[in-house]
Write a structure and sequence with these properties.
This protein is of the alpha+beta class. It has two domains: 39 residues, no CATH class; 111 residues, Trna Endonuclease, Chain: A, domain 1. It contains three helices and eight strands. Helix 1 crosses helix 2.
Length: 166
């Protein structure tokens, strides 16, 4: 699993820079695929809140290590959210499904916790579905078993319509 974050200016030094992120996602057969996300840096969603959440997640991994159960990370994060007075709902039910989101923070950011060897495409797609169903813009997908914690910012795509029939 690898990631790259770079800043590029498509039209020269005077134009707005773009954040280019590549995220390696393991497929079920073990081959990695590379996905690029390009977003205008002036449109970064909820930067202060996502920074605070990311800091709490780094503290959770530092405190509990890489191989704790997902519930333990959730309990630690919940206590830190209480200490920081950040409004949240844990195990929030997703409309039209039987699924639950690990955390809905400040009614704006979904946080999905994972504690497994690799994030799969299905994890990303699941998070993307939650964003669509709840009409939200940002989710943080966090896998605590990575040697170095790399929270993935999942942005709701508006290019493809969501099909709930399948």
């Amino acid at each position: 699993m690898h990631s790259y974050i770079g800043i590029a200016s498509p039209r020269g030094a005077n134009s707005l820079p773009y954040l280019i992120c590549s995220i390696g996602i393991a497929s079920p057969r073990g081959a990695n695929s590379l996905h690029y996300l390009i977003c205008n840096m002036s449109e970064l969603f909820y930067p202060k809140l996502s920074y605070a959440i990311t800091g709490i997640c780094f503290n959770a991994q530092n405190r509990l290590g890489r191989f704790a159960k997902e519930k333990l990370y959730g309990d630690y994060i919940e206590q830190e959210l209480i200490n920081e007075r950040i409004p949240y709902v844990r195990e929030f039910p997703v409309p039209k499904t039987d699924d639950r989101i690990d955390f809905l923070i400040d009614k704006t950011v979904i946080v999905e916790l994972k504690s497994k060897r690799y994030l799969l495409k299905e994890d990303y797609y699941q998070t993307q579905r939650y964003l669509h169903l709840m009409n939200l813009k940002l989710a943080l997908l966090i896998n605590f078993q990575n040697r170095h914690l790399k929270p993935s910012r999942v942005i709701r795509s508006v290019a493809a319509p969501l099909h709930l029939d399948s």
